[in-house]
Each structure stands twice: as C-alpha cells, then as structure tokens.
Design a protein that fits this description.
With about 90 residues, this protein is an alpha+beta fold. Helix content is about 40%, strand content about 15%. The protein contains 5 helices and 2 strands, in the order αβαβααα. It is globular.
C-alpha cells in the first residue's frame, strides 16, 4: 500500500530503514525488495542498529513511532491515504 501511495505522489526514491534488533527484519527487507521491483523509483532498504537516532532531525519522515515523531523535523502520515486507496478502514482499538 505504501509503495502505491508513494508512486502516486511522484516519489523518485524511497529510503526504508528497518531496526536490526526487531525480529525478522531481514525477511521483511527481502519481502519489501521483492515487491518493490515493480516500482520505477529507486528503493533503498537498510537494516540499522539505531533507526530512531538515524531519523532524528530528518524531514518528511513516515513512521508511527512516537519517539521518532517527537524528534524529527517533519513527518507525513500516509496511513489514511494508504487505507483509502485500497478501500480499507483503520482498526479502532479502545
């Protein structure tokens, strides 16, 4: 969903950072790379030890991690657009 929305937005390159300590980050990297092959933009997927610090001070960050949101220069919430584009609704947890 995310790659579809980024394509529609005219992205020329996409950088995805995955946390090394998170279980199955290597498998996720492979899955994203396989899906990303059909997209025309450059796709850079990296596994890093400290993604939070890597994103501190950056602009146009896409994440749901509140620690990163509190420390980046600017962020973009693409979740609503991703769900809308694919006819899905957000799961509400109370």
């Amino acid at each position: 969903m995310l790659l579809d929305v980024l394509l529609e937005a005219g992205a020329e390159s996409v950088h995805i950072l995955l946390d090394e300590p998170v279980s199955n980050s290597g498998r996720l990297k492979t899955l994203i790379a396989d899906i990303g092959e059909k997209y025309p933009f450059a796709l850079d997927i990296q596994i890093r030890k400290d993604v939070d610090r890597e994103l501190y001070g950056k602009e146009n960050v896409i994440t749901s991690d509140s620690v990163i949101l509190d420390n980046c220069k600017s962020w973009i919430n693409l979740t609503p657009r991703c769900l809308e584009k694919h006819g899905k609704q957000a799961l509400k947890v109370w």
